[in-house]
Amino acid sequence: xxxxxxxxxxxxxxxxxxxxxxxxxxxxxxxxxxxxxxxxxxxxxxxxxxxxxxxxxxxxxxxxxxxxxxxxxxxxxxxxxxxxxxxxxxxxxxxxxxxxxxxxxxxxxxxxxxxxxxxxxxxxxxxxxxxxxxxxxxxxxxxxxxxxxxxxxxxxxxxxxxxxxxxxxxxxxxxxxxxxxxxxxxxxxxxxxxxxxx
Length: 198
Prior knowledge:
By secondary structure, the protein is an alpha+beta fold. Helix content is 41%, strand content 18%. The protein has nine helices and six strands; from the N terminus they run αβββααβαααααββα.
């Protein structure tokens, strides 16, 4: 997970902030990988590494949302009291904002904890539902299909179309399925969840 101050969120979404700095004891994210950011969405790390504060170009401070090195030092020290800018521990991360959590969740493989959370959520959905069809059965069916619309899904499982659409909306909100003009299909998140149960 990669966190950002809430006051930076709008600028990140607008593409105005694409660089951030950290005082971590080690590199905790990797270039080329996507990470969830609480209350923001998903970001992809483009580049990461230790930097010498004196050699940071002005454009990096601007891309981090600061007017220059002096403003950056003032704000960074407030967030990281006692940080020594000569320590060689300053980490620069260049990143791209990918989008909101709901839209991007389907592209990210869940970790073990998230798989457990998905299982618990689906049990809750199934228990509260009155259609008598398990979410896992729907996901397994979609795994072996191209795209399937709600009408054909309802016919296959012999349930009301409106109820099927409601269930698919729930699965979509969990990032397990995606919808296209020609129907629903399993996402990367959905496939990873099913693979974890084998």
